[in-house]
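Justification of resources, computational component.

The compute hours requested in this renewal are based largely on the per-chain cost of generating structure records like the one below. Each record pairs the submitted sequence with a full structure-token output. That output is archived, and it is also reused by downstream analysis tasks.
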Amino acid sequence: MKNLNRNMLYILSESGYSKYLLLPKTNTLDLPIKVMQFGEGNFLRAFVDSLIQMANDKDIFKGKVIVIQPIHEGRADAINASNGIFTHIARGIHQGQPKEEIRIVGSIDKALKAYGQWDDVLEEAKDPNIKIVVSNTTEAGIAISPDDRFDDNPPHSFPAKVTRLLYERYKTLGKDKGKLIFIPCELIDRNGDVLKECVIKLCHKFDLEKEFIDWVDKECTFCCSLVDRIVTGYPQDEIEELTKRLGYVDNNLVVSELFHLWVIEGPSFVKDIFPLHEAGLNVIFTEDITPYRTRKVRILNGGHTSTVTLAYAAGLNYVKEMVEHPIIGAYLKDLLFEEVVPTVPGNKSEISAFAQEVLERFKNPYIKHALLDITLNSTSKLAVRVIPSLLDFYSTTGKLPNRLLLSVAGYLRFYKITRTDGKYFYGTRDNGEEYPIRDDKEILEFMKSIWDAPDASFGIRQCRSIVEKALSHPKLEAEGLLKVPEMIDKISLYLHDLLNKGAVESVRSVINS
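The structure output for this chain reads:
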């Protein structure tokens, strides 16, 4: 069976397989490059690149994407092997009925590697047709490194790469043609502002001309954005059946839910240059992203983070199992509607409707969203997604949010490190099965030191000691919890229960009370 590439598109259009596929219009395959994209992973391809293809098919955007692989390892070679063509399968419930869309996306022109092809990247960056830069370099990507050097090939951090790229455009194209619009997709608050701040700092560190720094500050646009789509990536467990069904091999195939939302905060001209909304896509341009972000982070992301460590300890493996479990599912529903929704500012009926929609998305029968994948970097996620809801609930009601407090205990129980081989760290589920814990190594070493104890009985006093030590770590941003002894007492009690009774019985006790 042949691999998917551009030459296959004509064959597919003439074959019976085309009835399964939404093929890109032929006139969209040779459009000019208008977007530079830092990141080639599953999310950007199933989100940005797929949406751009949909807009191109409606003659709206009329532009392609050049992808930059920002780190040493990645998918650039695989993307180029298929001429940038890949399959995106979107699945979900639409108007009460199951729906599947299989789209071949041809919006990627080519991929370059920052490491090994940096001169080529800078050359492509001089293209005046490129007006938009999108990125997803993970939450840790928008940060300055002490190793950043202007003349490195390439500079170390993503902001340093952006600084060098902007300088090359400025010198080559001038003030007007060189300016860019940045739309970062990293899941951090005010991502555009953070990227701009990093770039300006680096301009000063590199001792670049004041005129250039003023140009970056005033003429380039750094939008804050919010992205929302569950992307599960390559469907390893069903790829054999899909390959037979499609009639070709696609090593870049990616699966997501049907739902998508992209909120972009910026000046009004941004939507004129990047008019995806005109294609009927759920892309919102706004002057204030804050209400959208708070709602999404606390309800959808917070729902995940509050529950996955408990569900995984209990022996569940996927989000759908979690939300349909009679005990864990009831806990999640009560947590969202009784403790999280009240903390989200705005119209409560709209916020409740959003929470209900989130629960329905979690039940998507087509999405096998692994709980263990969601546990990646849970420390930073808990700090952003859960603790603010917990503190806001307590400050506004004066009551303890017991379900959210249990979620903190669930996080600590998940990070109970039982073994390390020096490189990887492992915990153990209630059934004794071992699992990897993935986070910053510094966090993992810290947690290991807390859980290492000669007395392994983990009585209530020892649990309280673990809670106090763990919540003191600055990355958890939990100072507010430590100031409320009643919260520490509850978390300690819940941690004790999780260790001695197991996750299901501990959750049952909380929802029953």
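The CA atoms of residues 119 and 153 lie 8 Å apart. The longest helix spans residues 290-313.
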